[in-house]
Design a protein that fits this description.
Elements lengths: L43 H10 L4 H10 L5 H4 L5 H25 L5 E5 L7 H6 L4 E6 L2 H17 L7 E6 L18 E7 L9 H12 L2 E12 L1 H9 L5 E3 L3 E5 L11 E6 L3 E6 L3 H10 L4 E6 H8 L3 H9 L4 E2 L19 E2 L2 H7 L2 E6 L7
Bound molecules: S-adenosylmethionine.
S-adenosylmethionine binds next to helix 2.
Length: about 375
């Protein structure tokens, strides 16, 4: 059913998202994962605990994404999370676009990108618009990689002015094997690794997370970046702590924890389902830990921002605002909804919103970005 103004008003935000208590994890420090004693952080006993706990979910994740059907715009536009998916896509576009601009400003050589956990190629257009020279797409799900390749071939056929980059496609579990031997040129280096909505699958165990981060960063050239998006562990914990039965969500998404015991650094599992798109186990990413792990790889995590914060910051830019509209990343406010609050400020030239349910799902996420990597030699 087309989401209509009649069927959706009650699910609209009652206040601007940034003023909602649930988007402010700072308000409940007792529920934060960092309240764990830090000395436990990388202890061996923690590692063996997570090993004992972890059964390997990689194939379950791969099977899930392999089974996911690609649907066209017509079907997507009828989904209850149509605007949220567009909004998430806008966040990725801005994140990727800004980094590519920076790369182009700082160097004259062609830009090479690793799309780690590329899925069905949802970011291919962003790479084309960003004028990159070479792309490596890799994912654990074979069907997704095949669809990504077909999408690329299709784009290439349609591109008349030869503005297409070259690309290669690899099916591999990035938490279990180094990707380099699988590249056409095993000495290839990258200017950017983009890991969108993926890194949380690797925090099932320390070994897996280490391999994923190594694959992300090891082949970055000096000045290269690692960027991504992932659920915010603080927010997940905060919401779970408010719930009676360790689960929370609404009609579009659900998060379910198994136990109330303090989460381990690796293997802190919860089950995540999102209307027809995701239904898999995921693992909390504790940012201070990822920061330490990245430091060991010579990278410094400098930006972590909630989607709400990211939005507030980026929407100030005229170009980003106009992209927001082009991508239908917010639902247009109709007259009958004028009493509702909306996501954007009235000082900007347009108004738009996400339903409350969509916002509750989107506001779980964070973007992250490293400082340009140093020469590792
Ligand atoms: C939510 S989708 C995101 C896809 C894409 N990055 C995007 O933003 O549209 C998560 C992707 O991570 C991939 N993935 C999960 N675990 C992985 C692993 N161990 N190695 C490589 N890819 C993995 C899944 O197959 C899936 O395609």
């Amino acid at each position: 059913m087309e989401p209509s103004s009649e069927s959706r008003p009650e699910s609209r935000p009652e206040s601007r998202p940034e003023s909602r208590p649930e988007s402010r994890p700072e308000s409940r420090p007792e529920s934060r994962p960092e309240s764990r004693p830090m000395k436990r952080s990388l202890d061996e006993d923690e590692e063996s605990l997570s090993k004992r706990k972890a059964s390997d979910h990689s194939s379950e994740v791969a099977d899930h994404y392999n089974r996911l059907q690609e649907v066209g715009l017509q079907v997507r536009s009828q989904s209850r999370i149509f605007y949220m998916r567009n909004f998430n896509n806008w966040v990725k576009s801005v994140l990727i676009g800004e980094i590519l601009d920076q790369l182009r400003r700082s160097r004259t050589s062609p830009v090479r990108v690793l799309d780690l956990g590329c899925g069905k190629g949802g970011d291919l257009l962003k790479w084309r618009r960003g004028n990159i020279s070479h792309l490596v797409c890799t994912d654990i799900a074979e069907v997704s990689v095949d669809q990504c390749r077909s999408r690329f071939e299709e784009m290439k056929k349609k591109s008349h002015n030869n503005d297409m980059f070259t690309a290669e496609f690899i099916t591999a579990d990035a938490t279990k094997e180094p990707l380099w031997p699988r590249l056409a040129d095993s000495t290839l280096t990258f200017d950017l690794c983009s890991c969108q909505f993926v890194v949380h699958y690797s925090f099932e165990s320390r070994t897996k997370a280490e391999m994923m981060l190594k694959n992300a960063c090891e082949r970055l050239r000096p000045g290269g970046y690692f960027i991504g998006t992932t659920p915010d562990a603080y927010e997940l914990m905060r919401r779970a702590s408010l719930s009676q039965d360790l689960s929370f969500g609404n009609e579009v998404f659900k998060v379910r924890f198994k136990s109330r015991s303090p989460p381990s650094l690796f293997g802190a599992e919860y089950h995540f389902s999102l209307e027809g798109v995701v239904d898999v186990p995921e693992f909390m990413v504790y940012f201070p830990l990822m920061t330490r792990m990245l430091e060991k790889l010579g990278m410094r995590l400098i930006l972590k921002s909630r989607f709400s914060e990211f939005f507030e910051e980026k929407v100030k830019d005229e170009q980003h605002r106009s992209l927001l509209q082009k991508m239908s990343a917010l639902e247009r406010l109709r007259k009958e909804l004028y009493k509702c609050f909306y996501v954007t400020s009235v000082t900007f030239a347009f108004q738009g919103t996400l339903s409350r349910s969509e916002w509750e799902a989107a506001s779980e996420y964070k973007t992250f970005r490293t400082e340009p990597g140093l020469d590792k030699d």
